[in-house]
Amino acid sequence: MHLKQLSDLTGVAGYEHRIRKYIKEKLESKVTKIETDPLGNLICYKKGKKNNLRVLLAAHMDEVGFIINKINKNGFLGFTPSGGIDPRVLPAKRVLVGNKEIPGVIHWAPPHLKENSDQSLPKFSSLVIDIGASSDKQAKQKVKVGEFAVFDTKFSHFSKNIIKGKAFDDRAGCSLLMDLLEDKTNYSFELAVVFSVQEEVGLRGAAVLGEKIDPKFSLIVEGTAAADFPGEPDQDISTSPHLGGGPVITLTDRSTIVDRRLINALVETAKKNKIKYQFKQPNIGGTDAGRIHKSRAGIPSAILSVPARYIHSPVSLSYLSDYKDTYKLIKLSLVNMLKAIS
């Protein structure tokens, strides 16, 4: 498992080079061919017994974060989000800025220091990053407009089974696909495993994959939101993905209606092998499948995810048991998924 190393690396959309470098170094001796396309997607091919059949698996490398868009006279950094982040989770959070990983803290003036005791919620326009600079000149010696920032969160264990870190969406998926390529199983078909770019800003890297790879089907591997935590008093969370419930199978989201044949293959494989599984609530979120399934003449696509609490925030929380069960289901389902659409 590579999740610790991948979680600790930094890279928002357009700045995935550190993640790509790590994955390439670890996998280039494990695969038949490895290449980077013009957009930055890392594509790994592993030959099978019948190379006229190809299956596409994908996970995205980018994480949510920020792009620095101005430097104020007093040395604070203005920023805009890269990906979907709720500004309410940001005040007083630690961040790392740019390739030099300059430490910073997100500032939002507390209510008791505001005029008329303003109790409004934070907006991106009212937030800045404090890097300890006292002037724009001093700040510009460390940071330039256009550089990125990410949450400063290190991977760690809460217990033997509970892990926390940043960017489990989708470094969990990246780690799972690295595990799959390192496995010595020889499939009858060729694996084309893609570590994609720019998913969090509109599934952009995935837009070119179907045309280039031309697979029989695709499986997108993700980290998705678990909602097993207190909410409104009357809120029913029984149908939401939860930690300990196993891999999450998507039925439909805002970008994809998943191919029923592939869903059935995943469910049947899970039942046969006594692997826990659960379903994602319909019409929430979107993944690279949203672009891939509309490529060429149409590519049957499915989505399988590791549940994680608090995605798109400074920290995610997951169970290792769910990670391991997701890996088992991926590995055991591929042959059945191919049969289902053949």
C-alpha end-to-end distance: 32 Å
Level-1 CATH class name of the largest domain: Alpha Beta
Radius of gyration: 21 Å
Q: SSE string, helix = H, strand = E?
A: HHEEEEEEEEHEEEHEHEEHEHEEH
- Helical segment count: 8
Low-confidence runs of at least 5 consecutive residues: none
CATH superfamily of the largest domain: Zn peptidases
- CATH architecture group name of the largest domain: 3-Layer(aba) Sandwich
By DSSP, the count of extended strands is: 17
Class from secondary-structure proportions: alpha+beta
Give the tally of structural domains: 2
Helix and strand layout, with pairings?
Layout: H1 3-8, H2 17-27, E1 33-36, E2 42-46, E3 50-60, E4 65-71, E5 77-82, E6 94-97, E7 102-107, E8 128-130, H3 136-140, E9 148-151, E10 156-157, E11 162-165, H4 168-182, E12 189-196, H5 209-213, E13 217-225, E14 248-249, H6 260-272, E15 278-279, H7 289-292, E16 301-308, E17 316-319, H8 320-341
Parallel strand pairs: 3-12, 3-13, 13-16, 14-15
Antiparallel strand pairs: 1-2, 2-12, 4-5, 4-9, 6-7, 6-9, 7-8, 10-11, 11-17, 14-16
Helix pairs in contact: 4-8, 6-8
Observed structural traits:
342 residues; alpha+beta; Aminopeptidase; eight-stranded mixed β-sheet; six-stranded antiparallel β-sheet; 24% helix; globular
Folded structure, characterized:
The protein has 342 residues and is an alpha+beta fold. The protein has 2 domains: 3-63 and 166-341, 3-Layer(aba) Sandwich (Aminopeptidase); 65-151, Elongation Factor Tu (Ef-tu), domain 3 (Beta Barrel). It contains 8 helices and 17 strands. Helix 6 (260-272) crosses helix 8 (320-341). The two termini are 32 Å apart.
